[in-house]
Amino acid sequence: MTDHPSRALAAFASQLRFDSIPPHVVERTVNLYVDWLGSALGGKGARPVETIARFARAARGAPEAQGACDVITDRTRTTAYFAAMTNGAASHFVEQDDVHNGSVLHPATVVFPVTLALAQALGASGQEFIAASVAGYEVGIRVGEFMGRSHYKIFHTTGTVGTIAAAAAAARMLKLTPEQTLDAFGSAGTQASGLWEFLRDAADSKQLHTAMAAANGLMAAQLAADGFRGAQRILEGAQGMAAGMSSDADPAKLVDRLGERWATVETSFKYHAACRHTHPAADALLSVIEAYRLDPDDIASVTAHVHQGAIDVLGSVVVPSTVHQAKFNMGTVLGLVAWRGYAGVNEFERDYSAGDIAAFRERVTMALDEEVDRAYPARWIGKVTVTTRDGRTLQGRVDEPKGDPGNTLSRDEIAAKFVRLAAFSGAASGEEAQRLLDAAWGIAEAQRVSTLFGEGASA
Amino acid sequence: MTDHPSRALAAFASQLRFDSIPPHVVERTVNLYVDWLGSALGGKGARPVETIARFARAARGAPEAQGACDVITDRTRTTAYFAAMTNGAASHFVEQDDVHNGSVLHPATVVFPVTLALAQALGASGQEFIAASVAGYEVGIRVGEFMGRSHYKIFHTTGTVGTIAAAAAAARMLKLTPEQTLDAFGSAGTQASGLWEFLRDAADSKQLHTAMAAANGLMAAQLAADGFRGAQRILEGAQGMAAGMSSDADPAKLVDRLGERWATVETSFKYHAACRHTHPAADALLSVIEAYRLDPDDIASVTAHVHQGAIDVLGSVVVPSTVHQAKFNMGTVLGLVAWRGYAGVNEFERDYSAGDIAAFRERVTMALDEEVDRAYPARWIGKVTVTTRDGRTLQGRVDEPKGDPGNTLSRDEIAAKFVRLAAFSGAASGEEAQRLLDAAWGIAEAQRVSTLFGEGASA
Questions:
Q1: Bridge partners, residue A446, by sequence
Q2: Cα-flanking dihedrals φ and ψ of residue B355, to 5°?
Q3: Are residues A14 and A99 in the same domain?
Q4: Are residues B24 and B160 in the same domain?
Q5: Membrane-spanning residues where (chains A, B) (predicted)?
Q6: A453 belongs to a structural domain
Q7: Domain of B363?
Q8: Distance CA A314, CA A437 (A)
């Protein structure tokens, strides 16, 4: 155990070589990238995403100016800073981006906006892109684990810790030294922000959190490259992130088996298009419905047995008034699963307040479960108790929800989700989506990462 | 007492009319603006400031593009976003910008970068500029008081709360409705950040905090103008700023005598160019030296009797290794005061590590004082105990350090400080400084706030 974990973590990110990353980690990182790109396409047209995109254009204030970096939702190009900001906003909107269970961090939406933009700006190779992305995942996940459960009760970890993940990815992309990378951590950590308060008002802050985590992390690394100094112990210091925003931080987690444990492959894909805290119960309910061949109308009540974090995040919404809020409502998610078999983007868009779904919602309650809570956040166990109208009490359970590392999505499933998201938002036709997919699967082999669209597109 | 203090505060900021601001408050706001402009000029050439300016140019990525908003340090023009960012960085560097005692907030460096940039972008009148600036001060100060002493132990209030002050000023400048202003508070508060950890490494984060508080606050208001929703109780809500970053927050302070108590005029000017926590003791030491006609060599030791906040912020630096760190070192400040009679920018630059100053530094200690601590932060009492080489024990005391509201600077003193700062950094010649001063004193009467420099300059 080092006496300076921030420094050890910065050195790891700075020195991570593509050749030292095992092939299965590279392969999974490509899958995570493709999955992320689908989510970014899926954000096109969403009001908060388009508002941030308009802000970015106005802040730049240079209508004719071009750039090397794709804005995925509208296929314009801009600087790395504004591309990271806009793509960071876009890729978290449909609630389909990945999540790491133990850290409760959504790494893709803060890491790939940065690595893609910088790789395009620098004309870097696919191998560099992968190495930098893995650096972002490995750092971000460990910092999320370090900050602990107390942090997540008030703070949106993907906003706060995501800034460090983005900085680590950017630092590796810019080939910063370990010392510069530590400076970047300092400038990123002192900008770490993101509060859950917005949830109870269905406000738009979630997109702002991911946009600015990506942009601020990139800024921190660019400043460090230019000699800007940051705090050397921003994570574990006496007036650092944990001191200010956690009561159960454990510095040992920052350097947990660096280079041996690949946290990147522990990341889960999202199958349902809802807050991840609903997925275990959704899959458990599906298992009961399938096992007992229940009709949704047979179900009198469902109790979802959950961890405390689920209650903290989902508990504030009783009757959702927007699609986005519905994705944070256990009753709506279980209703969609029961009636439609799947809680995807189209199901939410069409039916979140449909009569049958709203009626089912009223029959769902959450209860804190000791076993589930103890296992969390390392494992997200799904448990439900279903009572039927004919008086039966049925138990459902899944130990790994669909998309979790032990129950991961296949490349076919990821591709299908990608095409579905592109079609949902209208960001790409079926043919365009297929072309984007073909290129995206080959990102690790690219000699030079360039624009995804049009003439200059990577093979 | 309202049951929704965030909303009451947003409504106040949104509806503040120039005509309802008493003349003495307008006059003091002009003084604060002039004092701020001097600090911004003083930041020219400082490495962290220039690094942020380079970042802003690269992030914009449009070398030919112009804008309506002055970058004060280099007289270029850009968009409101990047002007706020760069001027926010510049105006906090020389540690000469104002401070409000009760909130421990430096309002000028987060408010004026926003109001000046937006007034220039919109061609707004001087009266609108003053009203928006006062809105920023009144809101920011109350939010700082609300967050309490526990917040300031870990967080740099000017970074965190400064984001809300900047948002309030920007919202008023953009003529947002009360509802939109509340949205802006939500988007600002969820980006509130800034940790003291950087102090122990003499890192550059202080400039980043003020740059991004100004830029993020402006962003929050621009997003709100475009329909982006924010949390409705970002300050006092169960997962809001106080819940996450304070243990002694008092919501009543948010709405303390709105429109009756003018907190703006409670703001202190900085006389010495050091962290404000050193000023009471510096003035108390000066009073002893003057009263007993001491020679610095007569002094065997000095104990500065301080409040806990001073120990928290100043305690981490023992031997300063940079000018900036020296400004956070009680011994260095008292040494400069004793030997040079004043701890100004030139004294720090030339002598912070000079032999006599370093030797004096070793004779200074801080001690927590119950009376001083109890009075803080409403009053910043200065108390020192001096022991002399000939065996005397002498007490020094000031109840209001120079620059405090009851002991404020005259316009002549502000002008002299302005000219000194412009000359120190080379940002303006004596003649240019005088021209800038003449225009700045008349800002409240300007029909239209335009560039400060060159052809298009305001009268």
A1: none
A2: -55, -45
A3: yes
A4: yes
A5: none
A6: no
A7: 276-400
A8: 34
CA distance A224 to chain B (A): 9
Q: Are residues A45 and A81 in the same domain?
A: yes
| Nearest beta carbon to residue A190 from set B198, B222, B238 | B198
Q: Which of A268, A302, A336 is the last residue of a domain?
A: A268
CA B3 vs. chain centroid, Å, equals 31
Residues 242-261 of B with CB under 8 A from A: 243-245
Q: Which helix (H) or strand (E) holds B143?
A: helix B126-154
CB-closest option in B208, B231, B243 to A205: B231
Per the structure, the count of domains in chain B is 2
DSSP B266-320: GEEPP-SSS-GGGHHHHHHHHHHHHHTT--GGGEEEEEEEE-HHHHHHHTT-SS-
ipTM of the complex: 0.93
- Which residue among A252, A268, A284 closes a domain? A268
Q: Which residue of A186, A234, A245 is in closest CB contact with B244?
A: A245
Give one DSSP letter per residue of A47-103, joined into a string: HHHHHHHHHHHHHHT-TT---SEE-TTT--EE-HHHHHHHHHHHTTTTS-S-EETTT
Neighbours of A20 (CB within 10 A): 11
Mutation test of the interface with chain B: which of A47, A64, A235, A239, choosing the one with the most B Cβ atoms within 10 A? Answer: A239
How far apart are alpha carbons B102 and B107 in whole angstroms?
Answer: 12
The strand pairing partners of A268, in sequence order, are A99
Do A345 and A421 form a contact (C-beta atoms < 8 A)? yes
The encoded tokens of residue B365 equal 């200690």
A325/chain B closest Cα distance in angstroms? 13
Phi first, then psi, for residue B72 (nearest 5°) are -70, -35
Q: Is residue B430 part of a domain?
A: no
Q: In DSSP terms, which residues pair with A179 in a beta bridge?
A: none
Cα(A368)–Cα(B131) distance, integer angstroms: 51
Residues A273-319 have pLDDT tens digits of: 999 899 999 999 999 999 999 999 999 999 999 999 999 889 877 89
Distance CA A103, CA B229 (A): 28
Q: What pTM value is reported for the model?
A: 0.93
CATH for B246:
1.10.4100.10
Q: Which of the residues B153, B239, B328 would you substitute to probe the A interface, choosing the one with the greatest number of A C-beta atoms within 10 Å?
A: B239
Same domain, A167 and A289: no
- Within 8 A by CB and 6+ apart from B418, the residues are B34, B35, B37, B38, B41, B433, B436, B437
**Are the C-beta atoms of residues B196 and B157 closer than 8 Å to each other?**
no
Sequential DSSP letters for B327-378: TT-HHHHHHHHHHHS---HHHHHHHTT-HHHHHHHTTEEEEE-HHHHHHTTT
The answer to whether residues B234 and B363 belong to one domain is no
CA separation for the pair B136, B142 (Å, rounded): 10
B311-360 confidence digits (pLDDT tens): 988 987 789 999 989 999 999 999 999 999 999 999 999 999 999 999 99
Domain identity same for A52 and A166:
yes
User: Residues B203, B327: one domain?
Assistant: no
pLDDT for A98: 96
Sorted by sequence, the CB contacts under 8 Å of residue B173 that are 6+ apart come out as: B114, B115, B118, B119, B122, B124, B128, B129, B132, B221
A433 domain-assigned? no
**Residue A207 belongs to a domain:** yes
Question: Do A158 and A305 sit in the same domain of this protein?
Answer: no
At A243-283, the pLDDT tens digits run 999 999 999 999 999 999 999 999 999 999 999 899 999 99
